[in-house]
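Lecture 7 notes: from sequence to structure.

We start with a single chain of 134 residues. Read the sequence below before looking at the structure.
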Amino acid sequence: MQIEVYVLMVILQPYYKSHDLLIDIKKKLAQGKGKYYVRFAKNFNTKQVAKAVLYLNKEAAKEASDQKKLSDREQAIYNLICENKHLTVEQVMAEFDISRATVFRDYAKIKKITGAVYDKNESVWKLECVIVFL
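Now the structure, written as tokens:
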């Protein structure tokens, strides 16, 4: 429990300015607090954890929505693929002055989002093109 509380504090440090996220019930009992304070502290801690989970869910949703969008370069590569179905890695490298690894990383994201697939046997991109102008 103590490790989970510490991890929660570290993760949410930008969100909460202080480390007083949760009340240490054992410490408060040692200080002489009564059973009603324990009930309050449990309720308070439950609310704080719920706020933390809600915050983390919002951040995860924000990251997921960012993952579903193509960057400007990826969109430009996708538009080139739509125009020329025989587009090679070398042509993309020359056009955008980027490394081979970057091209493959962009291809992976384009494939993940648009479903475009490169057929190595026929050396042709297979996709349904919808050119998007940003």
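The chain is about 65% helix and 5% strand. Keep this in mind for problem set 3.
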